[in-house]
Design brief:
Blueprint: H1 6-10, E1 18-22, E2 31-35, E3 38-44, E4 50-54, E5 68-70, E6 73-75, E7 82-83, E8 89-91, E9 109-113, E10 116-120, E11 144-152, H2 156-163, H3 169-172, E12 184-192, E13 195-200, H4 210-215, E14 222-229, E15 233-240, E16 244-256, E17 259-269, H5 274-303, H6 318-332, E18 342-349
Antiparallel strand pairs: 1-10, 2-3, 3-4, 5-6, 6-7, 7-8, 9-10, 11-17, 12-13, 12-18, 13-14, 14-15, 15-16, 16-17
Length: 350
């Protein structure tokens, strides 16, 4: 069994941007989040912008997230040590007026945009100066969107493969997504520039159940593509002509061994039905993702016993093998990820 910690096993993968919270999660009180086994406290500065520091007081290690905030600073609940938004200690009550200190707590690289706070959880230089990912149609008024937060008992590679896996839908999501029909599905798997794009060429493809009626009332041909964006993002697109569309965009934040938090961004365009359809779309997406939560726990229960299993693959797993290649390369040679190029044309049955 592999006894290394998650950060040890992930190597250079850690030197990337990860979502640590949604902006709307932070109110007057600080919150605590964990990324790569490191606890962080998030609070608002005097201007209302989010601040992320390590959630461990320098004095005796208490949780700052259970302290209080005032004028953009955070005070430890144990002995009152106070930190500003840069992580610098600004007050030690027991020192009185003679207080002098150059103590500073860990403050990761951080950037707030599109309603989320991204951080790079190491002292190393992140892979880019700011997060390069933009959520699809975030500022397009013709599209509605929302976020879902889901905790999974599994790790990034397995979750990415699950989110981009068509064959499992007829078993895990039977009746909700697709049904087993023994249809041949040709696909192209294109690896380039740190991405894996899958184009499906299935004739008369469609999402099953009531969602097909809602998303595609005009019965237009459906175009389905999946994409993995190194190191931890998936994007699943369904388009139905020029008027209707549905996007499932997931960013996976590694919490610890076999624990991840997934921030799923859902965007959809249903012309005049966007507002009316939202409760139904939210119910549908939450129901489907909870089915994935269950099957990912099923897998992780065995991974707890053996973190280095041997997998047997078929043609349908060309997607998974391409993703694994990028992430395995990124562990030790992150600079080489964008140079990997490969095109595969194959087929499978559902």
């Amino acid at each position: 069994m592999n006894t290394k910690s998650l950060s040890e096993r992930d190597g250079q993968l850690i030197n990337n941007w990860y979502i640590v919270c949604l902006t709307v999660e932070v109110g007057k009180k600080p919150i605590r989040r964990v990324l790569y086994d490191t606890p962080y406290v998030i609070f608002k500065d005097e201007n209302g912008s989010l601040v992320c520091l390590e959630d461990r007081c320098l004095h005796r290690g208490a949780k700052l997230s259970e302290g209080s905030c005032k004028k953009g600073e955070i005070k430890c609940p144990y002995h009152g040590w106070t930190y500003n938004k840069e992580g610098v200690v600004t007050d030690i009550p027991s020192e009185g007026d003679s207080f002098k200190s150059n103590y500073k707590i860990g403050r990761p690289h951080q950037f707030e945009k599109d309603g989320v706070l991204w951080i790079c959880p190491t002292n190393a230089k992140p892979s880019s100066d700011i997060p390069v990912w933009n959520f699809p149609y975030f500022n397009d008024l013709e599209w509605s969107h929302y976020f879902m937060i889901t905790d999974f008992e599994n790790e990034v590679t397995n979750l990415v493969e699950n989110f981009m896996d068509v064959p499992h839908t007829v078993f895990v999501h039977s009746g909700w997504f697709r049904n087993k029909t023994q249809i041949n599905v040709p696909m192209s798997v294109i690896t380039k520039s740190g991405r894996v794009l899958i184009e499906y060429n299935q004739k008369d493809d469609k999402i099953g159940g009531v969602m097909n009626l809602l998303l595609n009332p005009k019965k237009s041909p459906m175009v389905h593509t999946d994409e993995f964006i190194y190191p931890n993002i998936t994007r699943v697109d369904y388009s139905f002509g020029s008027q209707y569309g549905f996007v499932i965009n997931s960013q996976i934040s590694p919490v610890s061994t076999l624990k991840s938090r997934v921030y799923t961004y859902i965007a959809y365009k249903l012309v005049a039905l966007n507002t009316l359809a939202k409760p139904l779309v939210q119910f549908y997406t939450r129901s489907v993702i909870e089915q994935d939560v269950s099957i990912m726990k099923n897998q992780s229960d065995n991974l707890k016993l053996d973190m280095s299993p041997r997998y047997y693959s078929t043609k349908a797993d060309a997607v998974h093998l391409a993703i694994e290649k990028l992430r395995e390369t990124g562990v030790n040679e992150q600079d080489s990820v964008n140079s990997i190029e490969k095109n595969i044309n194959t087929e499978f049955w559902i």
